[in-house]
Amino acid sequence: MYLGAIEAGGTKFVCAVGDSGGNIHERVQFPTTAPEETMQKVIDFFKSYSLDAIGIGTFGPVDLNRKSQTYGYITNTPKPHWTNFNFVGTIQKYFHVPIGFDTDVNAAALGELFWGRAKGKNSCIYMTVGTGIGVGAIVEGRLVHGLLHPEMGHIVVRRHPDDTFVGSCPFHGDCLEGLASGPAIEKRWGKRGADLSEQDEVWELEAFYLGQAIAQYILVLSPEQVIIGGGVAKQSTLLPRIHRHVLNHLNGYVQHEVILKHIDHYITLPGLGDNAGICGALALAKQALGDK
Amino acid sequence: MYLGAIEAGGTKFVCAVGDSGGNIHERVQFPTTAPEETMQKVIDFFKSYSLDAIGIGTFGPVDLNRKSQTYGYITNTPKPHWTNFNFVGTIQKYFHVPIGFDTDVNAAALGELFWGRAKGKNSCIYMTVGTGIGVGAIVEGRLVHGLLHPEMGHIVVRRHPDDTFVGSCPFHGDCLEGLASGPAIEKRWGKRGADLSEQDEVWELEAFYLGQAIAQYILVLSPEQVIIGGGVAKQSTLLPRIHRHVLNHLNGYVQHEVILKHIDHYITLPGLGDNAGICGALALAKQALGDK
Lengths: 292, 292
Hints:
Chains A, B: It catalyses: D-fructose + ATP = D-fructose 6-phosphate + ADP + H(+). Helices cover 36% and strands 21% of the residues of chain A. The first copy, chain A, is of the alpha/beta class. A five-stranded mixed β-sheet of chain A has the order 3-2-1-4-7. In chain A, a hairpin with a 5-residue loop joins strand 2 (12-18) and strand 3 (24-31). Chain A is globular. The mean pLDDT of chain A is 94.
């Protein structure tokens, strides 16, 4: 049995064919251009396979409401040409199989639940820090949807008293994303994060904000596992600093030994590494097959 | 068919017998004293009925993990005599029926989903502002559990620049509960909330904090309905002020007409009024019967 997976990002697409064990058999990657051109490459890649289901984890915002007329669409994205693009409909025209469709971070959370660091658990969150800050969540074994989908990157954080950076979010100025995303780091310090790895104060401030935000997610969702992916998380000193700040913010309130004694196992990098996104799309395909 | 319901509060217990339509047939209420005495009254009330299930919505913290040895216990509560009390086990000794057990606010959220303002929806949050601030949540039709249960009343909020009150939370000082609970209002203004109803500045500040917190819950959980219960919510000017502050904080980011155009229907008082808690316990009983 073959499953198709699409990891649709703002700058690149990854497509893969894999199986229900989370194994990738073949993959391809190309830049995200106009929808017609990009989708043609997706279709060309998949058409030689007999697929049983396809999963799509995509940039957004997206319409996930199955009762909505625009279910399966990318909605009001600032990305040129992709506004109101019927993603599911376009794929369905060529492949008459069940299609799983969700945000990129929700997909990655599901991938980690099926085959990664949250394996065997009923809940987790997957946070990615890059151009934006996105967080996917699973509660009681199910991806969190609702009115729309979570937009956790935009929560309010309390500012560090020494931080005078105005923030980079066009909607909220100094929300979490406005203070701690890749572009926020670059604007505040005048260099890209990758070129600042030796500067302790950069990562201490970053951990102050990310740790504070993760403490809030823990208070609201009580996830059994917290996973941090994306480029920024690879800074080697960041994760231990985040552990410290999360404990600081919770201040002993959440009495569970996983937090009090094993925070380094509780908040981790993805078990699937850089494959969290594409395996997540594969997990959506597997789930779509089960839902049928 | 009869269902039993227990709303266990820190100061009073309400017990009721009702049906699966959410109707209460008989109810009784008594002060919360030592567990033995209190539970005897519960048992005496229920024993003349042939009950099919019992639901318990209780003060906490509680252990909701069914795999845990202390499932069904009230755990490390500061309330004298109730620490490590085996609530489910005590009831089960007398009544051999399915028992639903959850936090008081999760119960109220379920009651509102079954029979109140969130009827027909898949998700909602129920917030209560009183001695503490508690929030229950339902996502994809299921009560939110995880590592423990949500403790949303303790999230961080950004302080109002004119507010110099130090905060009343023993764990976090000026978290949401420390700034906006009933005791926080009383300490800040020197009077109980009920005696401050004419003072606009009290409710404007309260709405600033509650609105900010609700905006965070919307970003994290994307609930289809937000319900505010408890004594403080009854201040007549509070709810419209909260509507304004939620819109301010989201600043157009969550593009859904329910928020942008109908916020007064989106964030409301409980449909079940003061019965939200006891009907919630009834809903837990109904759910326990279905889970069997």
